[in-house]
Structure prediction request, 327 residues.
Amino acid sequence: MKNIKKLVLLMAILILALAACSSPEVAEPPAEEEPETKTYEDMVLCYPQLGAESDWRTANSASIKQEAENYGIKQLIFSDAQQKQENQISAVRSCIAQGVDVIALPPVVEDGWDAVLTEAKDAGIPVIIVDRSVSADSSLYDVHLGSDMFLEGQRAAEEMNRLLPDGGNIVELFGTVGSGAAEGRADGFRDKLNDNITILDSQTGNFTRAEAIPVTEAFLKKYEGQIDGMFIHNDDMAIGAIEALKNAGIQPGDIKIVSVDGTRGGFQAMIDGWIQADVECNPLLGPQVIEIALKLMNGEAVEPEILTNETVYYPEEAADLIDSRQY
Ligand code: AHR
Prediction:
């Protein structure tokens, strides 16, 4: 009897052991969820444009708006800050509150962005700094896409050196004070300018035609007969300056002008003999902004600094190229 009991117990243990082996209760790992890949149709992009001060800016705005349509993004939130930083900051805050996917910011000036960029970062919204640079720490934004303004200034100086081989006196029509574009160009220009060329004066025309006119008139009055050349930070100011030169009876080429942008207006002024070299600054950044924005939405790696390849244009080629200019 004892043996039977033992046998039954043994068999029970065996059955249990076999059962345990044949149907192991191994916990299935939870199925990993594939992160959803975002497309252009998902994108809500914020573009708080700094203003409408120049043909360059108009072309930049048009490029963003046109490409937002071409790429078929869900929504472009576009605003115009009228060259006022406080308006741009309010526009960025409004975009953060609306929970946009990406902010692409062309900053009017370099300083003063830390607080609002920190707010965007805390909200988890990627930021592309477009065109001009900011002085904020690079950890506060994802990418800077734009021109190398220092290099543009260096190129302008090389042209002025070529135009005034025996030296001379020049004046500078400065862009917006504190902007990455103007400060970079001014620094680059001084870096390469020959020692025998003297900058008599430098005044801002705020990148606009209207403000360039009285500044040039004042230069002509103060330095009558002394000005050999002008370094002008953009084509719109060059066109304003040319109007003042014409009114003062100055002939094309009497004062050598080096300008920046390469707009159609700048090309026409080269054809007419007023501008002797035009350093390119390309505003057609729409496709890059939108492609970078999508990468950032999908957490893809992007180069922290993407600089545009640019050149210098001359009067000899202006007539052939003007019709193909897109801005
Ligand atoms: O930041 C780019 C500059 O801004 C352009 O050279 C000028 O035309 C514009 O206003």
Q: What stands out?
A: Residues 149-281 form a domain with the Rossmann fold fold (CATH 3.40.50.2300).
